[in-house]
Amino acid sequence: MKRFVIAAALVAVGVTTAFAGPIEDRQALMKGIAKATKDASAYAKGEAPFDAAKVKVLLQVYVDGAAKLPTLFPDDSKTGGGTDPTTASPKIWEDMAGFKTHAAKLSADATSAMAATDQASFAKAFGVIASNCNSCHGDYRVKKD
């Protein structure tokens, strides 16, 4: 019975996620990346003791997110509406190739950062990743008031 309840719960979560829509999916993905950024930043700044295994898990969030992100901007998701509108800039749809290039660079740089062996090498690699994030947000995100 316990297995059935767990299986039913997993199916329900999967169904809910499947019907969430691209705007909600990309917002959830970006929240996950923001959480990884906060945690990775602590390692990069030396606020947390460097742990290569934990850092690799955080970097994998970037790799996975960068792979999925370009698929979450179909033409019918240009406006959000409702109480939580999208902050995606129209430039994404005008320059999808450039947007995909940003995502690919983020993935490549996060993959390269996985080779970091200490706080100093990770801090340097993470600086490149943070720069990628800032650049992409500058180009493809509408600033909130």
From TrEMBL:
Gene3D superfamilies xrefs: Cytochrome c/b562
Task: Name the Pfam families on file.
Answer: Cytochrom_C_2
What keywords appear on the UniProt entry? Electron transport, Heme, Iron, Metal-binding, Signal, Transport
Write the protein's name. Cytochrome C556
Note whether Membrane occurs among the keywords.
no
Q: Which interval of the chain is the signal sequence?
A: 1-20
InterPro entries referenced in this protein's UniProt entry, alphabetically: Cyt_c/b562, Cyt_c_II, Cyt_c_prime
Keyword Nucleus listed? The answer is no
